[in-house]
Amino acid sequence: MKLIHIRKSDGIIYWVMEPFLHLTYWCLFRKVYLYNVKGIPTDKPVLIAANHPTAFVDPIALCIYMDPPVYNMTRGDIFRKAWARKLMENVNMFPVFRVRDGYTGRERNDGVFEFCQGKMLKKQVVAIYVEGEHHLDKQVKPVQKGLARIAFDTYKNHALEDLQIIPTGTNYIHGDRTRDELKLLVGTPIFIKDYWEAYLLNPAATINQLNAAIEKALKTLCYHIENQEDTELAEQLLTLVRNDFPERLLPVVEIGKQLFEQERQVLQHLNAMPEAPKNALKTQVGTYFSALERAGLTDAGLRHPEHGSAKWTLFLILAALPAFLGALLSWPVRFLSSTLTRKLVKKREFVTSVLMGLATILGVLGGAVLVVIGICAAQPWLLTLVFLAPILGWFSFFYRDIRLRYAAARKAARHPESPALLQQRATIRVVS
């Protein structure tokens, strides 16, 4: 987010925490791909129609990688305590009261509609997670009607010509692991004025029409496996595509959707395949990955022998000391946050959200303690440590990624079955 836009947020904690969260995402994700994030205008009334894989990781991604402050709709039961409500409001979150959470009657959500309309009048951005639930399935679920009702109600009351819905997709390889990969893609606006005349004639049908347009757009911005029985095959095909893609280690954050488009092409092809060729492909791909597992190899290690080259050997030797220092300095935060996450979290969708939140809070608190001690004890080296610790901590993660890739490539290079496995891999046609 540009500095000039941060303080447009109503939530004080939002703009205070925003800079810290960039570094948190560098540690949480090995790679972040952004596409068209500048497509969210800073001076127009915008409703973001987003998918929702995790509890908080994807909402925060919208907040830190888009220019205008984003106001996120979230489940109302979190707001029951006064302190929780105050905290949520200060990070630009507002409640929706759902029947599934124990709430009855639409009157509770009258305030939600008024809140959204107020933001639209101020030309601000509201994110609504239109599937109505968070899930890690690589599938776009049916779009719920809440966003369309808010949009048409706002247009009815205020006739905002620029009122627009912008579909946005957040994608992960896993979604419940650290050092994952994030792809955030922003689609083209859908203007409510284009649907208004049809809405006046038949509101219910027009809401369905708008939802269909949003769902169609999300399927171009999100991973979508039509039949969830094909998930294992889809994941294997995506692995092959990713390992064929010429990825750069740095920068961590890149602009572009080339890799995502290749992945989406694979999933589209899989979704359209008749059963007979799909089953044949499933057998072929399954045989290859089973052979890899028996040999103790990975597709990435087999596909990229250059990851085990002499230059990476030299890097691992020269960078060992700063990486060790980073691992040592970040160990208390990593240990405490991972231990607490394992004890507290039962659902996959919450793992990275809780881990990220704990690590950020513990890191900030730890840094603040060191600053106080450094000042009170007149030890300036502690102040230097506060600034170096997060950078070295990130570097330790980066170093570990390189070391694992290096080990996988070296193992594949020495394995006697590698030539045969490469030949077997070459026969797999991911797309026709």
Structure description:
- It contains 17 helices and nine strands.
- Strands 1, 2, 3, 4, 5, 6, 7, 8 and 9 form a nine-stranded mixed sheet that branches.
- It folds into three domains: 3-224, Glycerol-3-phosphate (1)-acyltransferase, CATH 3.40.1130.10; 231-297 and 419-426, no CATH class; 310-414, no CATH class.
- By secondary structure, it is an alpha/beta fold.
- The two termini are 41 Å apart.
Brief digest:
The protein has 432 residues and is an alpha/beta fold.
Q: How much helix is in the residues?
A: 55-70%
Distance, first to last CA: 41 Å
Number of helices: 17
Model regions low in confidence, pLDDT < 50 over at least 5 residues: none
* Gyration radius from CA atoms, angstroms: 24 Å
Q: What's the mean pLDDT score?
A: 92
> What oligomeric arrangement do these chains adopt?
single chain
Please give the number of β-strands.
9
CATH architecture of the largest domain: 3-Layer(aba) Sandwich
Main CATH class of the largest domain: Alpha Beta
Gross morphology is: flat
Number of domains: 3
What structural class do helix, strand and pairing data support?
alpha/beta
